[in-house]
User: Fold these one by one.
Assistant:
Number 1:
Amino acid sequence: MNAPLVQANDLAMSFDVSAPWLNRVIERKPRLLLHAVDGVSFTIARGQTLALVGESGCGKSTVARLLVGLHEPTRGQFRFDGQDAHAVYQTGLGLKLRRRIQMIFQDPYASLNPRWRVEDIIAEPLREHGLLSDNEAVRERVEALLYSVGLAAPDRIKYPHQFSGGQRQRISIARALATQPEFLVCDEPTSALDVSVQAQVLNIMKELQAELGLTYLFISHNLAVVRHVSDQVGVMYLGRLAELADKHTLFDSPRHPYTRMLLDAIPKMHDTGRARTPVQGEVPNPLNPPAGCAFNPRCPHANERCRVERPALIARSGTQVACHAVEENRI
Amino acid sequence: MSLLRVEHLVVEFPGRRGTLRALDQVSFDIAPGEILGVVGESGAGKSLTGAAIIGLLEPPGHIAGGEIHLEGRRIDNLPPEQMRRIRGRKIGAIFQDPLTSLNPLYSIGRMLVETIMTHLPVSAAEARQRAIRLLKDTGIAAAAERIDHYPHQFSGGMRQRVVIALALAAEPQLIVADEPTTALDVSIQAQIIALLKRLCKERGAAVMLITHDMGVIAETCDRVAVMYAGRIAEIGPVHEIINQPAHPYTRGLMACIPDMTQERDLLHQIDGAMPRLTAIPPGCAFNPRCEQVFERCRQERPELLAAGPTRAACWLHASGGGEP
């Protein structure tokens, strides 16, 4: 196997959330930057799934939007199949690259145009990328796509409101697959769905991956879902990776105190009546993150060093973890 | 005696193309101090059941049949003014989104004091003291200062604590909590569930916990009602419902939840989707998706039948053997 298909090197994205210029001058307010993603690196091999997990505001969706080119990174590089994707996005070849990278969004009620028929929704990328122009060929392709996600050919003339949430998400998947992409960025694809429908959609995604050799970046806050779909898992906290490991290592022997906390916070289905150990505290304000390790105010193992020095990702027995306590063998 | 008794509750929505029956013959009860979980997929009627109990059905939805009794007194036919006095005093409500259930123009202290003074015979100063104590109980640090803050100055988890404080303000015996942790992150969710459980135990309040999250149900509830297409499919003790469900729908539902403890290549899936209210099949509503369906299921609607430790609306559990 050659170089990994997806390579993120030190990706960072800051948003300028300062007050308007005049207010800054009059009220002497400083410029304010929100570091949504702050130096995230990972690789995904072809045909594999990397899952990013974390609580709201940790920057996982920003990573997704960076990869598909909806944001320009403020620092770092995203290499896709050996080429610098953001450099290519700027050129005439950008369209060709976008064809190979597609996205599935969280809310199937918002991501499908309610005034378009399903066939127009699914055919849009085909026409946009100039893949098929002959109407008969487009129709055949749309029907094949609908079939591959478990919908029927006659569904193509319906409108999105005639479908349930799970069916709509299937339409989103069919649209994403229309250009025959290699890499799918899925931002919480099942969070808006009921569990029984979630199972159907996750199964379809897995079957399509096996059949078409797709590579997934799967973003979720649900660790049980992540355990089911992923090969590798990255745990994010306040814009940085706290831990990155293959699935089994991460779930069987989590190293970072935040990962352990997240795993403990999941309700266990079959131990009824057993209360979880609730973790104290909340995610700090990302505009004013704590110095040192961002997790230190909530961490039971924090010491002086954690409050001052920011830990880097280090390799430790099969996992990469950003924690001083792990580095010093304190935990 | 049970605290809340719901008998054959029917809720209908009249429409241009006929009347939709959104809740159909729903019966259950809640004992004092008990936590009853209500689970089901979207559209199964769980929130509607809660709304019917607290008397906040959105018109044109209305109760078209059945009765609701609180402490032995019928409450479903009370005039709005009397129902308003019961709401808050006898039944507290917690909703999903803590941002929309608090008034952004009022300080949280004003909301709490107003709620306390509406329902309890106390002076303004005493109400404020109670409010501060309530906020302290819900784990809000520096409650005496925070009481004058507005909802936007609190984080999501903190807001939900305020909502819980509001629901408990007039010391009701029953709390209807509709998806209280769905809008929150897992780490905060654990805090809120622990808090709700502790406070209700201390005060002896019963809880009707409506959620789609089986994990939350498992760790919190004493009993569970599983709803499907506006009906109760199965009801029983939480341990039995999760570990040895009797209704094929409950069994399918449990199997399709990704589990942290075991790995499967593909998840179990129940094919198809819950029927729309306009097209509920005759007989058992689950019959078109059921793997164990037989003739009787297509014709006759099953009542809740004893099925070991639980009760399930399924002909498989009919006495004398249901199967052909």
Number 2:
Amino acid sequence: MPIDASLVGRAFPATQPHPVTAEAVQAFTAAVGSAPDGNVPPTFPIVVAFAALQDFLAAEQVELSRIVHGDQRFRYQRPVAVGDVLTAQLTVTGVRSIGGNDIVSTSSEITDADGGVVCTATATIVHRGGAA
Amino acid sequence: MNDLTPGAELETKTFDVTRADLVAYAHASGDHNPIHQDEEIALAVGLPGVIAHGMYTLALVGRAIGEWTGGAEVVEIGAKFVAPVVVPAEGAAQVTVAGTVGERTDDGLLPLALTITVDGTKVLGAPRATVRA
């Protein structure tokens, strides 16, 4: 199913608030093999950024198995800490079609419980429409 | 901790990635895309096999930075996922993260120039990482 180019500029509803718990950080560092050092890993906000992405895909009825991650970047205003409660709001910034695949660019603002921006997560996802 | 003088070479890190790591990462990140777990589905959508989450590979970059810098604050991290990291059913894929310290920016941050490869093939494109150190 092609992704509708008219989505460009649309801001999707913010995700549910995601508490950054010590357990969640520990599970993440353990999966990656990092020694726990008290810091939240710099790619940890993918947890809430991915939730925003999943909400977007569900809203557009796109099957996750046809999605490949094209790129991902995080630019921080401040480090994430255990105890933060993060929310992400995704905006579609571009849709283009190349060789039967739709390439969707997104930017998600990740904010804390007070509404302050913690980081901006930009991502490109590739919807492998044609491959079978 | 490594020498963070601009121009210094960072100690190259090689990390194993197993299917079990991907299962653990799926639970930790919430990304349960079956292409990272299920060979049949991965092949059915035209992939060469079960592939690591791109974000798993990028998380390994975060791990390397943490080890190099003694846990310095990361101000920016990102990359393009330019080649799949195929993870075999038995054994592991090996992701190598190499880097050098860049020139300090006007606002006092240190960019790291990184190369991330599997078997000599670059798997992350245009990697960017900047730390406050």
